[in-house]
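INFO  loader      accepted 1 record
INFO  loader      residues=65
INFO  predictor   begin
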Amino acid sequence: MWKWVIVNGSFSVDERDPLKFYRDLAAHYLEGERLANWEKTAIFEGRTVLRLTPRRVRTMGFPQE
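INFO  predictor   done
INFO  writer      dumping tokens
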């Protein structure tokens, strides 16, 4: 089964520390060797954290309730 989520909205700059944000995100989804490889190749210069404020959310492919 396929699932899609399409969100329309506006982006704004989030003031969180990009280094901490992306490292925490990677640690949440990766572990072991995959996390170590990501840390070796990750580039943080010029990184920004963006926040999406949704105006419209469309879902497709989810079971009907």
